[in-house]
Amino acid sequence: MMKNTQPVSLKQVKIEKGFWGYYRDLAFSSMIPHQWRALNDDLSDAPPSYSLRNLRLAADRNRGLSSGETYQGPCFLDSDLAKWLEAAAGRLAARPDEQLEKSIDEVIDLLAAAQEADGYLNTFGSLVLGKNRWRNLRDEHELYCSGHLIEAAVAYFEATGKRRFIDIMERNVACIAEAFGREPGQRRGYPGHPELELALMRLFHVTGNPHHARLARYFIEERGQQPLYFEEEKKRAGREQADWPPYIRPPLRQYQAHKPLKEQQTLDGHAVRALYLLSGLVDVAAESGSSELMQTAERLWDNCIRHRLYVTGGVGSTHHGEAFTFDNHLPNGTAYAETCASIALVFAARRMLEVQPRSAIADVMERALYNNCLASVQLDGTRFFYVNPLQVWPSASQQEPDHWHVKPERQKWFGCACCPTNLIRLLSSLDRYVFTYNSQTIYQHLYIDSEAVFSMANGLVQLTCRTRYPADGAVTLHKDGAACRLAWRVPGWCRQHTLMQDGRQVVPDIENGYIQIDCPAGPVTVSLTFDMQPCRVTCDPAVPENIGKVCLQRGPLLYCLEEADQGRELWRLYLPDNSPVDLDWHQAWPGDIPGLKAAGYRQADGPVDSLYRFAETPELVPVRLNFVPYYVWGNRGPGEMLVWLHALPG
Ligand SMILES: [Zn+2]
């Protein structure tokens, strides 16, 4: 099964205005330079990154200039730098910048200098492992880091047309391809942290080299085969590896390596790994035409979105191993919902959409993007959440070990800084998620103010999308150029929509949740309106955490309550089913996003001063409930936050 549509390339879509124009500008002008300082250990009051420092050491060592200093920090630091490089390449594609390009070229020089003669490239490996490279694939992340560097090289090539970085990484891939495979003398291993699989497919798509796709397929198909490689590796090493205790998770499920992917029924283990793996799996399945692999991808995706997805688009229910747990287990106060995992969900969704556009998949992509992903960054772009909970109780975060990971305020940087760099690469490549297309049809998945050009069967098509979405649901599209078919996703939250073509209302075809029209050659103007009344969201009663509860959503944006508006003990609040929910423009957020307000109740202390009471009817006091968009929570000082509150049947 080949893909039905393809993604856009890095320079094909321009995003400069509107809601995301603000965030793109924040990423380009503030976050990328800020994170560059972080990677250079140049931020005061933040833990050092060591990324550039280690790379310089490795380059010096290779040039015979050893200073005697040693590697510092966790083994995967090359990946933080790689994600920054990928983001910076996205910035160059959108806004050429000589100084930035020079900085990137200097890093590429360092990477070239640090690369060993046979193509091996890994700072930790060169400085720490030496001859013991690949000794512990499960935990030491050499293949993972190569994957991120490949993705950066592809982005830099797309942005500048310069091949040098790609050449470095193709030499690195040749070294990996020699070491791993089913031939005599090769290791039958695969990455402990998936990422290389999807990166190899990206490299294949820009170079056309089929060896890269074959290597990706090998890693996907070898994973979990008997004898289990990670078990063999452990025996060979004859040493103790720090395993996850078996009471947390069966061995190797954490790494999606307990059995072959084709036999796996649920999306398990470390959530970022699971979703990078799924992304690579979709690409490999489509390219190889294997219906069995594609069914596997569909099955794992369905399990994730039907039973393991937070309403915010977060995934990963436990901090033990940053992982999925089991179906319908979605605790709010101890949620992990790592920023990277939600970003990985966006990556996987886009690849699923390439196979076949389906609005339910794009809905998930939008949910993750506008809520979990966006909430991870402070409005000024300088602080970040790693964990994105749905309920915060600062006393618990301070005093109870199973809540320690839940921070009531964003942090400047992290000892494990995977999330901030992942977010900037998402923001700087946001254009790749708005559309996918084939020779006949352009599918618009996200309503983002943008301009784009497509090369279609009948010739070039120019598309301009003007919108204040998600401030409101009005979208105007100007299409010019060749005849083509245009398709727009009808969001799952939208109860009513209209489509006007050149001033006349039309009833379009609808397929897989996309309304579609045939446009003749020449200019056509289409106005779409999606009803954005606030709506109540409830949850499958199979999820114990959310039964009897409700949360609010308007358009793609989830809302929450905060201590700054409601005082402490948010769990005392009730939203009656019959209470109208209105927009609150007094509390507008960047992008002209309104707050929401409704009449509700707060449960009072009651007449009895005792922990347990007998047959006491709760005393409900009327209060005004002020909801803020989830993505801006935690911007007014630390305090409580709550997404799901009690519904009061009317
Ligand atoms: Zn992360």
Give a description of the structure:
It is a single chain. This protein is an alpha+beta fold. The protein contains 18 helices and 23 strands. The strands form three sheets. It has a seven-stranded antiparallel β-sheet, with no helix packed on it. Helix 7 packs parallel to helix 9 and helix 10 crosses helix 12 (271-288). The chain is globular, with a radius of gyration of 25 Å. The termini are far apart. Zinc ion (ZN) is lined by residues 338-340, 386, 418-419, 422. Zinc ion binds at residues 338-340, 386, 418-419, 422.
Average pLDDT across residues? 95
Helix content: 25-40%
Instruction: From the alpha carbons, calculate the radius of gyration and give it in angstroms.
Output: 25 Å
- How much of the sequence is in beta strands? 15-25%
What structural class do the secondary elements suggest? alpha+beta
Terminal residue distance = 50 Å
State the major sheet.
7 strands, antiparallel
Keywords:
single chain; 650 residues; alpha+beta; seven-stranded antiparallel β-sheet; 23 strands; 19% strand; binds zinc ion
Give a brief rundown of this model.
The chain is an alpha+beta fold and 650 residues long. The protein has 18 helices and 23 strands. The strands form 3 sheets. A 7-stranded antiparallel sheet has the order 2-6-7-8-14-10-11, with no helix packed on it.
Which SSEs are present, and which pair or pack?
Blueprint: E1 6-7, E2 13-14, H1 18-39, H2 51-62, H3 77-94, H4 98-114, H5 123-129, H6 137-140, H7 142-160, H8 164-179, H9 196-207, H10 210-222, H11 229-237, H12 271-288, H13 291-307, H14 339-355, H15 359-375, E3 391-392, H16 394-399, H17 418-428, E4 435-437, E5 441-444, E6 450-456, E7 459-467, E8 474-481, E9 484-489, E10 497-501, E11 504-505, E12 509-511, E13 514-519, E14 524-530, E15 535-537, E16 549-554, E17 557-562, H18 563-566, E18 573-576, E19 581-589, E20 593-603, E21 620-629, E22 641-642, E23 645-648
Parallel strand pairs: 5-9, 18-23
Antiparallel strand pairs: 1-4, 2-6, 3-22, 4-5, 6-7, 7-8, 8-14, 9-13, 10-11, 10-14, 12-13, 15-16, 16-17, 16-23, 17-21, 17-22, 18-20, 19-20, 20-21
Helix pairs in contact: 1-3, 1-17, 2-3, 2-4, 2-5, 3-7, 3-17, 7-8, 7-9, 9-10, 9-12, 10-12, 12-13, 12-14, 14-15
This protein binds zinc ion (ZN).
Zinc ion is lined by residues 338-340, 386, 418-419, 422.
